[in-house]
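Section 3.1 - Work completed
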Amino acid sequence: MSKKRIEWIDVAKAVGIVAVVFGHAMTRHGTMFHFLYWWHMPIFFIMGGFFLKPIVNNDWIGFFKKRIFPLLVSYFICGGLLIMVSHFVRGESWSYTLFYFVRLAYGGRTLNHYLSVFWYINVYLLALLFTSIVITYVKNREAQIIVAFISLIVSTSYKHIYFLSYKYLPWDFDVAFIAMFFMLFGYLYFHKIQEFVKDFWVIIPATIFTFWAFWMQHMDRFNFAFFLKSKIIHASYHHIAISRISYITFIPIIVCLVVFSASYYFCKFFPQFVIKPIQLVGQQTLGIMYLHKAVIDIVDEAGYQSAILETILALIISFALSLFYAFIKSKVKNSLHKAVS
């Protein structure tokens, strides 16, 4: 593992993916369910902006080869495999299965069952592209911040846009502008975040606020629902509706800062033999993201309804399959390299 990796970021990714899996395994949509959805997707978009850089000399071909194309390949390979697994496990017809490949290309909210989380990679790729365009051509930092807020305000100002006969845009195109807000935040404030995670004057108030918001949600005095995929956003306090933008702007970011800080201090005080396995999970979040929903659904169909058991099994199996995929991918690359040589 590269020495340049920042340990607490990998740990934060691991915490985020555990939250995603647990959220999908839960059947009771109570306080904890809503709390997880406040931040478990925004945290990945924020971290996606940490190491972004403007495109030098307009080398967009290099950008696509390095950042976009590998994710596209994994999207279609994993998606295709899961469509076939779903066909045999769920007993779907061939017409349904073949049309699902069309839905895989269309992406977004048309995907369900084993592929219901694949919207994330659609939105992530689009947000990556949009954010890279902004930081490349909008040089002024203040202007970048304005763009981030405009994208958030416009993209949350309506419920749906119809495209042809579908209720939703291909690849959840409009959701990508909400994701871009978080990705730009990660890009613009990464250095500040590195300072904040160590600063008790920031983290203690943020932690207190997080616990307060969780308790207020539990007591039904505070109501914040933030489901990024479906753009379902509710915001009220004491049943008085307030600005959804203010909730989206502050609550996910504050909770993410608490997670980042907890990850930082975990890495600071725990020994390496404890940190490394969690860090390795954080490095396989994409594979786990792709595969965990299929595992949860299969375990569900087998008659096991425990959210904790489903979460553990989904993490272990998805993690193992992700490592296996990485191993096969490296073998294929090495073979191709030797053949070319």
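Second construct:
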Amino acid sequence: MLKNATSTPVIISTDPGIDDAVAIAIATSDLSLDVKLICPISGNVSLSKTTLNTQKLLTFFDKSIPVVPGSRKPLLRAAKDASGVHGKTGMDGYPFPEVNLPVDNSMTASAAMHSVVNDSTQPVTLIGIGPLTDIALFIHEYPDDLANIEEVVLMGGSLGRGNFGVLSEFNFATDPEAAKIVFTSGLKIRVAPMEVGRQAKIMPNISEKIKSLGKVGDMFYKLFSKYRGGSFNKGLNMYDALAVALVLRPDLFEEVETHIEIETTGRYTAGASLIDLKGYLDLPNNATVAVNVDAEGFEKWFVEEIAKTI
């Protein structure tokens, strides 16, 4: 499918991961987005596995999109993973075909981002659905490029309690220093936090609808059956697809402008995202945060978008 002249140029930083797989499928199949580059990063599983998973998905969907692997670990901290949620490979459950898409190891992810942004005649949107290490490195290394960034759209952070630490969500808490760099960059940032992902559940009847969508539906159904982000029987949390939905269907969300402060020094709270909805910090707004999503509207949109990938 050919992208139209008004398609939004997009770079995706991702750590697939089953919910990342859904986000990548939607972003690369919707004609209003033009995915220029995908940069796998260590996160849900190791870099070698997230890179291979990206190759598997693009091979499966027959998409020729440049893939440049990113960071193997956070800026300052030891690598973590979420294989307990996504399985040993990150995308357990489906026998993907042998990959036929190469990766480019001749440059860093941040340099690849620079090349895309520098050459783009339209402002580029960065979609971050993993740890923010590579986006932070890009911001640090190429400050002159920031004028050609439309916005940074993220899945991460939490409005309250966490899923990584007591008050921290996995994507931000894996590399708090990187998250800090992103939120102090001055860029336009929009965020779908963890709790909104829990509102946007894919219920069993929706999984059954997706199952009927040919080999694509079969693939996702089998991945969903292995995913531990929620319950296959009580509803799955499609966290990372929310970031793509924020770009494509912002009308589905209630958004609030506020300040987000990333804790980096707390002994027990490093990686916590202080989403200051009540203005306690008395600091200027630096992000727009989704606080609610139309769950029924999201479900309908989700199935429609998956159907486009066939």
